[in-house]
Amino acid sequence: xxxxxxxxxxxxxxxxxxxxxxxxxxxxxxxxxxxxxxxxxxxxxxxxxxxxxxxxxxxxxxxxxxxxxxxxxxxxxxxxxxxxxxxxxxxxxxxxxxxxxxxxxxxxxxxxxxxxxxxxxxxxxxxxxxxxxxxxxxxxxxxxxxxxxxxxxxxxxxxxxxxxxxxxxxxxxxxxxxxxxxxxxxxxxxxxxxxxxxxxxxxxxxxxxxxxxxxxxxxxxxxxxxxxxxxxxxxxxxxxxxxxxxxxxxxxxxxxxxxxxxxxxxxxxxxxxxxxxxxxxxxxxxxxxxxxxxxxxxxxxxxxxxxxxxxxxxxxxxxxxxxxxxxxxxxxxxxxxxxxxxxxxxxxxxxxxxxxxxxxxxxxxxxxxxxxxxxxxxxxxxxxxxxxxxxxxxxxxxxxxxxxxxxxxxxxxxxxxxxxxx
Length: 422
What we know:
Elements: H1 3-51, E1 57-63, H2 73-78, H3 90-94, E2 103-110, E3 113-121, H4 125-135, E4 140-143, E5 160-169, H5 204-211, E6 217-227, H6 243-256, E7 258-262, E8 268-272, H7 280-292, E9 297-309, H8 318-323, E10 337-340, H9 355-370, E11 383-386, H10 387-393
Antiparallel strand pairs: 1-3, 1-4, 2-3, 2-6, 5-9, 5-10, 6-9, 7-8, 9-11
Helix pairs in contact: 6-7
């Protein structure tokens, strides 16, 4: 083949390829441009909705009385106020930019002093106060300034160092949300009248860790929730985000699953759970899943930040940040939590110049401050937790948590005597 023929062949092929590319681009580029324009429009409407002052948030500090005799069930009932159903229609969500209200349940330690907060939308403040006072009549709720402003992390001249992480389920699979964590019901904290010395509160480990912090150290923990269902989460949420559907599927798997029992080197016998061969752990798991079906559920995100000012940052505290949620799991049967999206690397060559870690620190700190989890730019893949499970992780502790640095008011609130002189 002559040189001219070879050149003609390659040039002709090149023109054919360019023509095909132009034709393909003329078809797909408008589609891609339309998708980008649509998502930009939706984001603009949502940002405008959130920028409206009436849709802003308030921070309420919960001041604990000297004694709390209520079980975590009181907090479970109080959480009902956050299970709002609006907006539910597609027009309000996509064209008006309306976003379902979320709330952030927070426990912090400032140099060992422990405080409880609720961050919620202004429009539901009165409802939140009423719900909390109905369950805990002796507490005090006070609107306060945002404590996160006390840490200028990332600003010029700041010497604060942080280690932050988010959490996800330990279980995997299609029905991951239906596997329950170990709740206050499972450990007997639902029984009224139990003496404090006989109670076991899974929050005790967290509170002890927080009380051990010294001056110049802080620890923040938040649970961000919004009612499950509707248009609350990004479009890429898992294929089966409905908690009830997951739970029913898991119950079916557990009740009809066959267990293989070795009777010999080649002989196996199928034995069903219905025949009474389930282990105590399997039966307890099935009961917990069935109980959760009657509970309201929330899309949930959790994150925490440990920080120290200058040389007060203590890297050995990171182990506590990673492990304080372990009491909420129970062996292989139940779900649990593990860290994800944390500000570190497993190997030094993954980020030799520290650029990725520095960016992740700024991102997680900003997400915490904004109490964001469900919408851009901090949208994440949420877990689904029931009110019972959330109340296990966030409730007002009684005397079983005798941490001296727990912020309690000095006296109980009570009504004035009716026989006072006028």
